[in-house]
Amino acid sequence: MDKFHPSLRECAIAATAFKLLLFPAYKSTDFEVHRNWLAITHSLPVKEWYYEKTSEWTLDYPPFFAVFEWILGQVARFFDPAMLDVRNLGYDSVQTVYFQRSSVMFTELLLLYALQKHLPLCPLKFDPESSKRPAHAVALSIFLSPGFLIVDHIHFQYNGFLYGVLILSITLARSPSTRLYSGFLFALGVGIVGIIAAAFGPFLYWGQIPQLLSRLFPFSRGLCHAYWAPNIWAIYSFIDRVLIIVAPRLDLPINQEALTSVTRGLVGDTTFAVLPEITPRTTFLLTLFFQILSLIKLWTNPTYETFLGAITLCGYASFLFGWHVHEKAILLVVIPFSLLALKDRRYLGAFRPLAVAGHVSLFPLLFTAPEFLIKTVYTISWLVVFLTAFDALVSPVAVNTRRFLLDRFTMVFIIVAIPLIAYTSLAHKVLFGDRYEFLPLMFNSSYSAVGVVGSWVGFCWLFFSA
Question: Membrane-spanning regions, if any (predicted)?
């Protein structure tokens, strides 16, 4: 780290060259989802966007993202107009693949710009002569995150662009002269009125708000996603699976209809066999409660670091307690926490299990053999390089402060990850073939959930005790 400090621009060039090699790689159903959204927004009037259902992958993102897809569609027509036909289900010509992959890389430049703007404002208290080094390491860790590589550039989404908007809004909030602009990007204060009016006003005028909300909040999909996101409900579901085994000995009643609902991995209502059912209202109230706690702290101590902490905890709350959370949403926590990870050694102690769990939890998204080495080698390399660099650069805590408890937890947690990856990726197939296909997913999700929850507990203790 002392001799080689690559700039963000140089890393972006190298990363782009690597990502170009991934164009032929696996692409999930999300590729077809976004192609269909390109077609919907390009070929239909706005008032029909949220009613169109030729494909099962109906438009269910907010209006501003639909406008983003419309803008992309204006360029896509020059590559291959056929991709913009809503009837061309599953269409994936070479031109379509190249355009969609390239659009992710191009729009990700906003993330690069946001990180460059954030560098001088990094809220880390170091010797002024070396203060740029930790901020630089954090920026590089975010831009080169395995999360973006796996979710955006292989699995296919646009998280890099969206988190670029988030980081840019966080950066603008630091300076009094730019806070108004931050408000419009981040929807703070009065700005939210104009944003809501612009996004939902036309649909209110057309009387389509119920239809729009039914798409944006699909409660019928069930509490857990097909692959459990590593949150509180993954642990809850795992405990329910364990209780099925011990219930006869304890004379506990079992809901027979639930014996296949959770482990099938299908989208739909999740029914628990032993534990009480969870309703959307319960998840909403829990999410709101834990978010309000962090906002109260921000209200009483309105500093920039508290602002970052509150954003991180709001991300934790949404991910841990939300309804039908996708595993990809872990980036809601990892990205803002990264901006605080080097505040002192205790914060880094809480960040490590999140970094490991968050990225390992994304592995099942790429389940084909050619991508195994890519996701494994890249993720392990990222963890080794950046967690080692963070440890060398982190601000020390007071001399008389005992080593943070999460350091020991993290060491054990990381060690367990090695046999877990080996089992879920290789050994299970050898031992069981096609049987118990949900078992590796359950183990991966439950393991990762322990790391995410442990990280959350540690972060809460640091945030509320400061």
Answer: 156-173, 185-206, 226-247, 282-300, 347-366, 372-393, 405-426, 446-464
Q: Would you say the pTM of this structure is higher than 0.85?
A: yes
Please provide the distance, in angstroms rounded to a whole number, between the alpha carbons at the two ends of the chain.
Answer: 30
DSSP state of 227: S
Q: Is residue 104 situated within a structural domain? A: no
327: how many CB neighbours lie within 10 A of its CB? 26
Domain coverage including residue 250: 220-465
Query: Residue 210 falls within a domain, yes or no?
Result: no
In a domain, residue 420? The reply is: yes
Q: What are phi and psi of 128, to 5 degrees?
A: -55, -30
Tell me the per-residue pLDDT of 228-265, one tens digit each, with 9 for 90 and over: 789 999 999 889 888 888 888 877 778 776 666 554 43
Dihedral angle, C-alpha 334, 339, 345, 348, nearest 10 °: 10
The phi and psi torsions of 209 (rounded to 5 degrees) equal -60, -45
Do residues 244 and 263 make contact, with C-beta atoms less than 8 angstroms apart? Answer: no
CA distance 154 to 378: 13
pLDDT single digits (tens) 155-185: 999 999 999 999 998 888 877 666 666 666 6
Q: How many residues does the chain have?
A: 466
Residue 118 has a pLDDT of: 83
> Domain for residue 150, yes or no?
no
